[in-house]
Prior knowledge:
Radius of gyration: 14 Å
Number of domains: 1
CATH topology: Archease, Possible Chaperone, Chain: A, domain 1
Amino acid sequence: MQPGEAPGDELAPGVRAIDHTADAGLELSAPDLPGLFARAAVGLERLIGPAGGGDVVELTLELDAPDVALLLAEWLRELLYLRQVRGRALRGTSFESLSETSLIARLATVAAPEQAVREIKGVTYHGLVAERSGEGWRARVIFDV
Length: 145
């Protein structure tokens, strides 16, 4: 959470911060699967801190997983790797294809700032949920901080 934000505060439409012992997490909702994955990306970026700037570099990301929850975790792991190892922050995303077990995404990235507001070590499987709900999709993901 950013300074001044409390658990339960909405970080973006359909993205709410949750408090978890020694961890941080997101509860997500969206009308469709692309919206869920896009909101998860926005939530991760907002937990880490400002996006930075500079020239936009486009990348393509292809992922496969046995189910939608594991695909969501893998998606967030790749975005975290992009930020921490390659020094790129996500500016926008679009999906060429997205199913419950695979995705091909186009990522618009910019240089990440040197210092993050919060260090996220990884995406956990603890309490990981991604499923259809009455209004579309919902998910919960916990990050190790």
